[in-house]
User: What shape does this take?
Amino acid sequence: MTDTRTERTAVLAVVGAGPAGLAAALAAASRGVRVLLLDSAPAAGGQFYRQSATGPGGPGGPGPRVPAHQRRTWDRLRTALDAHLAAGRVVHLSERHVWCLERESGGFVVHALLGPEQEESSAVRADAMLLATGGYEKVLPFPGWTLPGVVTAGGAQALTKGGLVLPGRTAVVAGSGPLLLPVAAGLAAAGARVAALVESAGPAGFARRAGTWATTPVKLAEGAAYAGRLLRGRTTVMTRHMVVAAHGGERLEAVTVAASDAGGGPVPGSERRLVCDVLAVGHGLLPHTDLAAGLGCRLDGTGVEVDDEQRTDVPGVWAAGETTGVGGAALSLAEGHIAGRSAAARLTGRIPDPRGWAAAARSRARLRRFFAALEAAYGDPPARWPERVADDTVVCRCEEVTAGAVREAVGTLGAGDLRTVKLLTRAGMGWCQGRMCEPGVAGVAGCALTPARRMPARPVPLGVLAAPPDPTTPR
Ligand SMILES: Cc1cc2nc3c(=O)[nH]c(=O)nc-3n(C[C@H](O)[C@H](O)[C@H](O)COP(=O)(O)OP(=O)(O)OC[C@H]3O[C@@H](n4cnc5c(N)ncnc54)[C@H](O)[C@@H]3O)c2cc1C
Assistant: This one.
């Protein structure tokens, strides 16, 4: 995209102020572009550099403490951001929940809802877009998963990292994926006893890929440090196991775990009951693609497809970080840096020179290989997990649809895809629009999980739709 404007600085809107969005904003702002950095959170940092809230455990408060991630990298990003904010090269529009991106001649309009209530609206104009909206957790249902005390792995981490509350005294961390390790270690650091880490993957997949782990010793050391902390805290680690039920009256009191056989089926007689008052559970992450899909960007698997410069197939739209595929904070930083430099060059009428970001490109290639191997080693949750979901288990919480109703839609009424299941049962029609329940409903229905096109990307008050605000460019 060549900028022919001579009298004003080109404007790049970056949605998402996590590692990818921050790296992109800094790279672009340092190269002559004005950046509007929008995020739904009150402070920059995203999931990885989440900042303490001003709750009981906020700065100076009495709540739990967990170690900050990569303090020095965060300090460097924060200092650079502050300098650009002071110079007016970056405008940080926090608590902006972006619900729609609109193409207009020569640019884009970014529509957002404001503040915690999300009832007011704003719109800003930009010459180009950079999407760095990260990922969200994949949650699979099981009997008892709606009990108070059952939280997602990331939710438990957000509570402890944000310094608000410790969600329980005795925890079980369960599901699958690399996120479980920092979550368990964080809960332990915040004062909980982590009774067990229950991982559905087996160790064989990891042993087969020993060569790949050796190429990224930093990640290996990170994993070993988490494992060391758990062993010191006497956490029992169970592999090839799943939580099959959560039990309790008013709130969680215990969980039942069971082993899976090589075919993903339950091993008879392997059930064990573990006493706990918090269960942190998650099965990895999925990329946030709603805004990109709304603009018509092509997807690659579950993430947004990008080229070597992190450009999507829609002119003027870049994407970086976990919206393009799940791969950790360091990969997000590398992708964001490349995207920001590419966008700045093209917006100021130059052809970008990839030699300028060669180090970031090398790091991107190495980390993409590492995370592809990690994904393969963890694999999918046991293939036959839906068999363990009883008919009366609610699978769509917003619309209170049970597994039995989903099975009836498939078996009796003949639904063959997720959309038909949704139309027949209302599963996925509620407030979250399927963001939480879609993988679970797809599993129970036996349908393929395809990336949904969800527009608007957030629930929007009718008044906002009826009278959208005039776009501005903030000073
Ligand atoms: C819940 C959770 C916990 C994690 N914990 C760890 C961990 O302990 N250790 C680890 O190594 N990795 C962890 N990860 C992974 C790590 O956070 C990511 O690798 C990294 O943060 C990805 O960076 P990103 O910039 O792509 O996205 P993110 O850091 O997710 O940033 C995306 C930003 O976009 C904003 N956003 C999204 N949609 C919109 C919208 N429509 N409007 C406005 N703003 C929007 C979000 O508020 C967020 O600030 C976690 C991820 C998640 C989801």
Q: What stands out?
A: The mean pLDDT is 89. Residues 358-378 form the longest helix (21 residues). The pocket of flavin-adenine dinucleotide is lined by residues 15-21, 38-41, 46-48, 96-98, 132-137, 154, 157, 179, 182, 285, 288, 291, 321-322, 328-329, 332, 457 (CB under 6 Å).
